[in-house]
Amino acid sequence: MGAYTLSEQKTRTTVDIYGQQYSIVGTESISHIRLVASIVDEKMREINTKNSNLDISKLAVLTAVNVVHDYIKLKDEYDTLQRDLKKKD
User: What is the DSSP letter of 54?
Assistant: First the structure.
């Protein structure tokens, strides 16, 4: 999850993603880890409804591609907003 330094404590929790249990260790809160897991689970289920013949590996890769695509779009929007704010200063 986040970068680990000596001053940060690790959190461990078990989550369910697409019917599989995963033990996740990170420096984020348990609620954050569970939120991330629920979003991944939701995206996998959404993609599966449109492509029900995919095996789990292909479904996982398509989920990753979709999530990174969404991330890049949001990052581009954020960068644009940052530039617009700097122009106003």
Answer: -
Distance from C-alpha of 44 to C-alpha of 78, rounded to nearest angstrom: 26
d(CA 10, CA 25): 6
Q: Which tokens sit at 18?
A: 């697409």
How far apart CA 5 and CA 2 sit, in angstroms, is 10
Neighbours of 66 (CB within 10 A): 14
Q: What are the pLDDT digits (tens) for 21-41?
A: 999 999 999 999 999 999 999
**Rounded percentage of the chain residues whose pLDDT exceeds 70:** 92
Give the C-alpha separation, 19 to 48, whole Å.
Answer: 13
The two structure tokens encoding residue 56: 């789990």
